[in-house]
Amino acid sequence: MTAILEVENLVKSFGGVHAIRDLSLSIEEGSVEGLIGPNGAGKSTAIEIMSGFLRPDKGTVRFRGETIQGLAPHRVSRLGLMRSFQLAREWPQLSVLENMLVAAVDNGREALWRALLTPWRLHREQREDRERVGAILEEFGLYGLRNDMAGTLSGGQKRLLEFARLVAAKPRLVLLDEPMAGVNPTMGAHIQDAIRRFTERGITVMLVEHNLSFVEALCGSVTVMAHGTQIARGQMATLRLNETVREAYLGSNV
Amino acid sequence: MIVNYVVTVLTLAVIFSVTALALNVRWGWAGEFDFFVYGLLAVGAYVDAVFVLPPVTSSDVGVSYVLGLRMPFIVGALAAMVITGIISLIVGAIALRQLRQVYFGITTFSVVLIMSAFVGQYTALFDGYNGVFGLPQPFNSVLNIPYFQYGYFFLAFCVVILIVVYLVLERVFWSPYGLVLRAIREDEIAAAAFGHSPYAARLKAYVLGGMIAGLSGALLVSYLSAFNTDAWTPIETVLIFACIIIGGTGNGRGVILGTFIVFGVILEGTRFLPDIPGHPDWDAALRAIAIALLVLLSLRFRPQGLLPERHLNDGPTGEGVWSRLRDRMSRNAEAPPS
Amino acid sequence: MTILLHNVGFGLVTASIIALASVAFSLQFSVTTTPNFAHGDILTVGAYAAYGAQLLTNNILIEALAAMVGGAVIASLLNFGLVQPFLRRGAKRLTIFLVTVSFGWILQDLILIIFTGNATVIQLPAVTLQHVGPFLWTQLDEIIIASTVVILALLHVMLRYTKFGTSLRAISDNPQLARLAGINYPRVVQMTWAIDGVIAGFAGFVLAAYVGALTPTIGFSFLVVIFAASVVGGLGKPYGTMVGALVIGLAMEISAGYIPGGYKTSVAFAILIAVLLVRPRGVFSSDVWNFAE
Predict the structure, then answer these.
(1) Residue B285 is part of which domain span?
(2) Domain boundary among B210, B232, B254
C-alpha cells in the first residue's frame, strides 16, 4: 500500500511552548487512520500544519509525493487534502444547499470572468452541480433541510453537513478533527456511518478523537501522540496493552 | 418647475444607486467595510472630466488641470472605469492582504482623506479646491436636444446604465464566484479549507466594485457638469452606507430601493418645510438627522434591510431574472406544437 | 535649527491635544472594544458646551468645566441610550460601529441646527509668544501642555492606584475572567464612558481654543488623527497611545517645515497607514488579540 501522506520530523513551537517536538507519521491510501493521545499531545497542531493552516518550524509534509508544508491552506485543499474543524464551521447565513455548492464548486468555475463571459455554459454546469449535491444531501439525510440557513442546524446536523460538504468537494484525503465534538453522543452511530461513506468512495481518512471506542470501531491502524511526538502505532487492541501508551494516558481507562 | 425638480432628484437617485451597487459588491457581498468607494467615485469623476474637457488654454485664468482631450462621454466613462479599476487593484492588493473590518475601514477612510488633501493642494492636477467645471452634455453634440428636454434624456440614459449594471451584478451574484465570495464573507477559514482563496476573491470584488464606482463618478460629473473637493466629504460615504443598510445589504434591488428611499423621500420630504430665517442650515441638517434615525431604526429592527439577501432555492424562482428568462425560453421550446 | 526646534515645540502642543483625545478613545476601547466613530463629535460637543458657557459667563474655568460635563453627558448618553440596548440584543461589533456612526452624524447636525454652521470663536485672553528654552510658545500653549500632563498623570494614578483603575485594567486584559472575579462589569463600563467623555470634552475645548475657529465638524475632522495616534500606540492601550500621540504630533509639526502646511494631516494619515500595513496591532503590542475574531 502506498502512503498518501508522509510527515517527517515536524517541529513547531509557540513562544516557549513546544507543541510538536519531532513528529513523523504516515497514512496509507484508502485506510482510516486514527490519531489519539492525551490533551496537549499536539494532535490539533499537527492537523493545522498538515492542512496548511500553520507553518512548521522544521520538517516536511508530503502529500501524494508532493511537498506541501508552507503552502497556503486553499492550495493544499485544491491538491486534495481537506479537513474538518473541531467546531463545525458552516457558513451560517447561507442555506444548506448553498453550503454544499460552495464546497462542490470546481476550481475553474469560481472565476469571475466565467460569470461575466460564459453565463450559458456556467448555468448548465451549475445545474449538474446541484443534482450531484442534492444526491449527497439525500445520502446524509439532510435533503429536507436544504433550504434552511445552515446556522439554524443542530450540532449533529452541522457535523453531518460538514462531512457532506467534504464529500462534495471530492478530496483524496480528509483530516477529521474531533468529529464527535459538540455532537450529542446518541448520534455516534450516525457519525460513524457518515465517516464510512468516505471510505466507500476511496477517500482516505485520518481521524482525531478522544472517544477510544469510536476510534476502535472505525480505524484499522492508530497512531498515538504524546508530548508532541509519536509514541506508538498499531491496532487499538495492541495499543491498549502497550506500556508507553498507558503511561501517557496516566490514570485514564485505556 | 416642480417637474424639473423631480427629474433632478430622480437622476441623482439613479446615479447614486449605481454607486450604492458598487459599495454593495464590496460590503454586502464581500463584507469589507470600505470607505474608499466615494474616493473612487471622485476619481472617476475627475478622470472623465479631464478626458472630456478641452485643454487648458492661456485664456483660462486661474484654472489648471491635466489632459483635456475633448473626447466624447463614452471614452471618458471608459477611461474612468479603467483608471478606477487599476487604483482599486493597487489599493486592494496592499490593503486586503492583512487588514480586516474596522482596520480596513480606517485605512480606506484615511486614504480618501489623503487623496482629497492632495487633489486640493496640488492644483495642477484637477484644479485644486475649485475643481473642474464646464463639462459638455454627453451625446448632445450629436443629438442636439434642446436644454429643457435634455434632462429627461439624461435621466433615461442613467436608468439604462443602472439596469445594465444591475443585470450584470445579478449574473455575478448567482454565479459560483458570487456564492464563494459570500462564503468567504461568512467564514474565510472554512472557505480556504475548501480550496477558495479569500484574498483572490476579495481582490476581484474590490476591482469590480471600484470600476462601477468610477462609472457612477463619470455619470455624476457629467450631470453636474462640475466637480470639486466639496462634493467629496466623508458624509457622502456614510450616506451611501445608509442606502444599503436601509434597503437591504447584499440585495441589488434592496440597494436601489434604499437609495431611492434616502434620496427621494427624505430629500423630498423636508424641502417643503418653511425656511426658518437666520437658520439656513436647518433643512440639510434635519434631512441628515432623519436619515441617520432611519439607519438606527433599520439596525435595531431590520438589520438585514428591507429586502434581505436572496438564496439559491430549488426551482426556477430562486435564481433571479436570468434564470427565469432562461426557464421561460426553454419552456417555450419544449411546448408541444399545437 | 531654531525653526526645527520651534516646530518641535509646536509638535508638543499638538501632541498634547491629540494625546487627550486619543487616550480617552483608547481607554474606552480597551474596556468595551467598541470603536466609537462618534468620538470626534464628543470633542465637538465639549467645545460647543464651552462656547455655550462663554455666552453666559466669561470665565475660562467654567467653560472648561462645561466642556467636561458636556462631554461626559453625551458619552454616557451614547452608551446608555444606544450601545447598551444594542449589545443586550446581541448586536455584532460592526453593528455597534454603525450605530456610533449614526449617532455622530445626528450630533453634528443637531449642533448645526442649534449653533448654525458659521465658525465661532472661543474667546481667550490675549496671549503673546515667549521663548521657553528652545521652544516658542504662547501662554495658551503652555496651559495646554500643562493641563495635558496633569490630566494624564491623574489618569495614571487612577489606573494604577485605585480599585476602579484596577478593575478597568482587569477588564481590558480579560473580560471573562474579570467578570468571574466579581468585578461590577456594567458599572466599570459606564464609568469608563463617562471618563472618556470628560477628557474628550476637555480636549474639544482645548482644540477649539488652539485652532481659533469652532465649527460643527471640528471634532470629526480630528478623528482620523485620533485613530492614527491610537493605532500607532496600539488600539486599546492608553499608555501606548500617549506615545503614539507624541509621535504623530511631532511628525505633523516637523513635517510642516518641509512640505506645505495643507498636508499636515496627510502626514498623520500616512503614518497611520504605514503602521497598519506593517504592524496593525500597533508599534508596542505583542499580544495575539485579533480584532476580527
Answers:
(1) 234-307
(2) B232
List subunits contacting chain A, requiring 3 or more Cβ pairs under 8 Å.
B
ipTM exceeding the 0.90 mark:
no
What domain count does chain C have? 1
CB contact under 8 A, B101 and C94: yes
Distances (CA, A) of B11 to A29, B41, B150: 64, 16, 12
Contacts of A102 in chain B (CB under 8 A): 179-180, 183, 191, 194, 196
CATH of the domain at C186: 1.10.3470
Say how far residue C7 (Cα) sits from the centre of its chain. Answer: 22
| Residues B95 and B227 placed together within one structural domain of the fold | yes
* pLDDT tens for each residue of chain A, 254 residues long: 688 899 999 999 888 888 888 889 889 888 899 998 888 888 888 999 999 998 899 899 999 988 998 888 988 999 999 999 988 888 988 899 999 999 988 766 677 777 777 777 777 888 888 889 999 999 888 888 888 899 899 888 898 999 999 999 999 999 999 888 878 888 888 888 888 989 999 899 999 988 888 888 888 889 988 888 888 888 888 888 888 888 877 644 54
The predicted pLDDT at position C122 comes to 73
B319 and B171 inside one domain: no
Q: Choose the mutation target among C78, C92, C101, C264 for the interface with B, i.e. most B CBs under 10 Å.
A: C101
Report C:137-196 residues touching B (Cβ under 8 A). Answer: none
pTM: 0.84
* C118 within a domain of the structure (yes/no): yes
For chain A, which domains are there? 3-90+170-248 (3.40.50.300), 93-152 (no CATH)
Q: Which residues of B touch A121 (CB under 8 A)?
A: none
Number of domains in chain B: 3
Are B73 and B122 in the same domain?
yes
The pLDDT tens digits for B185-238 are 888 889 999 989 888 889 999 999 999 999 999 999 888 888 887 777 777 788
Find which of C269, C275, C291 to mutate to test the B interface (most B CBs within 10 Å of its CB): C269
Q: Which of B69-83, B203-217, C133-147, C222-236 has the highest mean pLDDT?
A: B203-217
Q: Using the 3D structure, point to which of B201, B232, B263 is the last residue of a domain.
A: B232
B296 and B316 both lie in a single domain:
no
